[in-house]
Design goal:
With 307 residues, the protein is an alpha/beta fold. Helix content is 37%, strand content 19%. The protein has 2 domains: 223 residues, Ribonuclease Z/Hydroxyacylglutathione hydrolase-like (Metallo-beta-lactamase, Chain A); 75 residues, Arc Repressor Mutant, subunit A, CATH 1.10.10. Helix 8 runs antiparallel to helix 10 and helix 8 crosses helix 11.
């Protein structure tokens, strides 16, 4: 999808499922909002250069949270430009403490490097990006350090992973806590009260059906409260696919052992499915193959969604 000019010189760049979407403000001293996954750095640079943005002169990176698909290019861009990075205070704390668990990087066996963060973004703060005023709204749930950005004049919401058009991103209660689902529901209530014409999510296309998206996300989260095992099912499906995107063409015979060597997979099975590692693996993989989300090719497994 071609970049969308959400407001003057402020571009929304949609990416595939491996990288989070991001924004770029075109100016002599550019501002970036999220920087996508580390291994896709070349694509990130190319997308900025096509817009006439000199990423090596970046003045500021704003991150909506610390997950690897949103901060992946931070370090390289910061080293090239000397830019500041701004995060919610919780995320800044993760960075300053080099906490690879709170960021999810070690838990999900993800690729990311730390960077310097010298600026905190408080809830309710107005962030100036050129002539644009973006209101910072803390939106915990998916991640404790999550924020969304609201452009009141344009009635545009940069909703990151707090609100997608369909469904929701994963809930990692083992790291975020059991009350993170309730916090997420409260964040959605806050979004619902805004006057939003269009939402630009962290994954997927922009959308205008805000109330419908909020209602769908609420239903999924409420299901987590009534059926805790559904949290585990969602994690297994989504992170297995994400693993295949991170490490393309994993040998089919080796994938189970690779997953057992991570922290997240045994932990999820122990928490929700009484240690039935192989049974749940076979069940989830079979379902993904039947739905053609994963394809078997010459002894390897390939995720069919676009990275």
């Amino acid at each position: 999808m071609d970049p969308i000019e959400a407001a003057k010189d402020l571009f929304f760049i949609e990416r595939g499922f491996l990288s989070g979407n991001h924004f770029a403000y075109r100016a002599d001293a550019p501002v970036l909002i999220d920087t996508a996954y580390a291994s896709e750095l070349g694509k990130t640079k190319a997308s900025l250069e096509r817009l006439g943005i000199d990423w090596g002169r970046t003045r500021l990176i704003v991150n909506t949270h610390c997950h690897c698909d949103h901060v992946g290019a931070n370090r390289v861009i910061q080293e090239a430009s000397g830019c500041e990075v701004a995060l919610h205070p919780a995320g800044r704390g993760y960075v300053e403490k080099a906490d690879r668990l709170a960021t999810w990087w070690d838990y999900y066996d993800q690729e990311a490097e730390f960077f310097d963060c010298a600026r905190s973004l408080a809830d309710g703060e107005i962030l100036a990006v050129g002539p644009h005023e973006l209101e910072v709204l803390h939106s915990p749930g998916h991640s404790a350090d999550g924020i969304v950005l609201y452009h009141r004049r344009e009635k545009a919401l940069f909703s990151s992973d707090t609100l997608l058009e369909a469904g929701s991103t994963v809930a990692t209660l083992r790291l975020e806590g059991q009350d993170s689902v309730s916090a997420w529901l409260a964040s959605l209530e806050r979004i619902e009260a805004l006057d939003v014409r269009v939402a630009f999510p962290g994954h997927g296309r922009p959308f205008s059906s805000i109330r419908e998206a909020v209602a769908r996300t609420k239903r999924r989260l409420e299901g987590y409260l009534t059926r805790p095992e559904s949290v585990g099912d969602d994690l297994l499906k989504r992170i297995l696919v994400y693993t295949l995107l991170m490490r393309p063409r994993v040998g089919a015979a080796a994938l189970f052992d690779r997953l057992m060597g991570t922290r997240w997979f045994p932990d999820t099975i122990d928490t929700y499915f009484e240690g039935e590692y192989r049974r749940k693996y076979d069940e989830v993989l079979r379902g993904l193959l039947e739905r053609s989300i994963v394809r078997a090719e010459a002894g390897t497994l390939v995720a069919t969604v676009k990275p």
